[in-house]
Amino acid sequence: MLQEFKDFIGKGNVLAVAVALIMALYFKAIVDALLEGVILPIVSAIFGEPTYENIGFGIGDARISIGLVINALISFVLVAFVLFLIVKAYNKMRPEEASAPTEVQLLTEIRDALKNR
Fold it and tell me: Contact 71/52 with Cβ under 8 angstroms?
C-alpha cells in the first residue's frame, strides 16, 4: 500500500495539479487586492458611497446590495480576462501541429498523380 501511494504521488499529473492549485490561490490574492484596493474604491466613488457594500437600496426591512453583485461581476470579468490572456499566450508559445490536408487538397493531389502516370 505504501508503494502504491508513492507511485500515486510520484505521477506527473498529481504534481502539476498541486502546482496549479497553489498558483491559483496566489493568483486569487492578486485579483482580490486589485479589486479591493483599486477597482472597488473607484466604483464606490462613482456611486458616492464610502464602500461598495453600501451601494444599493432598501425595500421595507430588507437591503438590496447592488454593490455585492457589482463586485462579483467585476471579479468574474477580471479573472476571465486574465485567463484568456494566459491561454492566448500559451497557445502562441505552443508549437503548431501540421494541419491535415483538406478534401480538396487530397483530390487535387490524386488528380495530379493520375495525370502524371
Answer: yes
Residue burial 93-114, b: 16+ Cβ < 10 Å; e: rest: eeeeeeeeeeeeeeeeeeeeee
Q: Which domains does the chain have, with CATH numbers?
A: 2-111 (1.10.1200.120)
Q: Which residues contact 105 (CB under 8 A, 6 or more apart)?
A: none
CA distance 43 to 36: 10
pTM over 0.90: no
Residue with cell 492578486: 30
Find where cell 462579483 sits.
72
Per-residue pLDDT of the chain (117 residues; tens, 9 = 90+): 888 887 777 776 666 777 788 888 888 888 889 888 988 888 889 888 888 888 888 899 998 988 889 888 988 888 888 888 888 888 888 777 667 778 888 889 899 999 988
Return the ∠ at Cα 43 (arms to 40 and 47), rounded to 5°. 140
Residue 41 identity (one-letter amino acid): P
